[in-house]
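Field reference: sequence -> structure
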Amino acid sequence: MAVPVLDFSVYQLGKENVSEADLEKLSDELRKAFTEVGFVYLKNTGINQEEVEKVMSVSKRFFSLPENKKKNFSRGNYSCNVNHGWVSLETESLNPRRPGDLKESFNTTSLREDINWPSEEVADFRDTQVSFFLRCKDLALKVLRLMAIGLGMDSEVFINEHKHIGSFENGSTLRSLYYPPVDSTSVKENQVRCGEHSDYGSISMLFQSTEDGLQVKNRAGEFVSAPCIPGTVLVNIADLMQRWTSDVYVSAVEKVMSVSKRFFSLPENKKKPFSRGNYTCNVNHGWVSLETESLNPRRPGDLKESFNTTSLREDINWPSEEVADFRDTQVSFFLRCKDLALKVLRLMAIGLGMDSEVFINEHKHIGSFENGSTLRSLYYPPVDSTRVKENQVRCGEHSDYGSITLLFQSSEDGLQVQNRAGEFVSAPCIPGTVLVNIADLMQRWTSDVYVSAVHRALLPPAGDSRTRQSLAFFVQPEDESIIKCCDGSDKYPPIKTVDYFTSRFNDTYGKKNESGLSGIL
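Structure field:
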């Protein structure tokens, strides 16, 4: 997937009176770019190409100085900021597994006039760097504001932690980079101009010269070229923003939903070859068509369809021709959810005063044929109220079957959960979060200390034709695990995971299933 280009003109530098609708539209486009690709070009930002070229020209005059002249301004020589200053060729290895990077740079981190600048050598060096730093600061704050809006958060939530850019309280840096000519006879094995890395802070804004060379890694794990587009700035998410947003900016929640929706949008005859029940490796893997399931058997079939990723094998039938990146996207997200689920299970054991590994020990084979944990991509199509059956809903009242469930939702309402008072309450999407609930086997396992949560998805209001999507990662113990009360009581009799699931599947699909089922809904 190519890096998208967004027009920033409605919110460019100098424009402050922007309509709420324009801000929301631009923030949505920005969020989509960051979550699906991770990088975005912004054009018409208010920073023009002439400004960029001036900074590059002044910087090149500095880099052209003899090394003994540049050493006086080396990074590490400044007591006001250890990152400020010149970095010589091959000093850095941004990928420590490679030799030193074939680049040099000058970091403008301090704006103070009373420190050592190369003013005699390059008279306008400081003024040019500081002026451009401040222009970039103003643009960065606008981008951070849009990013917060795109997550449904207060517009100032990120801004509030970036108020001191340009002071000693904040280490934001303008880095001028210079890649000198390469003598191929002296290049070391595996040496590159700049090794594979991620940036460390919130966001990075990159202005390039016209020479090619930059590659960025997209959400599919592929390196793609990101050439200079004159008049644009390339923006990417950095590490702290990923942590700050719980992986929303960088991880693939919207990417998975987007790829899944492309599959659900296929004609039915294209989806049928991937139907649940067609896979000998796992009977729960595959597509489930509209109204096939009744999670509450007393209601008509649920108005949803889904795709269960239960097997991760490459050699089974995936919709690779129809949706090229389908398997890679599902499997990658499955493995991310697995890692998170194991952390949650460990905390749950500690919270009960038990050995931290007691639940983990029965979930060691998630992703293999010995465990039926499932990533389920769910799609709720538009509802035609004239064709809805009596008591039909998008997803009937039910509890989940295994240990815990991780749920990621789109922004549309509909999900309700039953609280301890027996009342159904709304559980709307909160961007940047995952909704976690207890499932049946965990309730049995803990003798009702952790209680399985009943939930449902209702129909949208009359006239609301929006679709709805969610991603549910259903975590279950190994198929052959015997689940018995961990407090030593006999509140529930011991039961094998696969036997419990077989019983529940029979209810859901309204028929006797003779095969040993390994999977979850």
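Note: The two ends are 31 Å apart (CA to CA).
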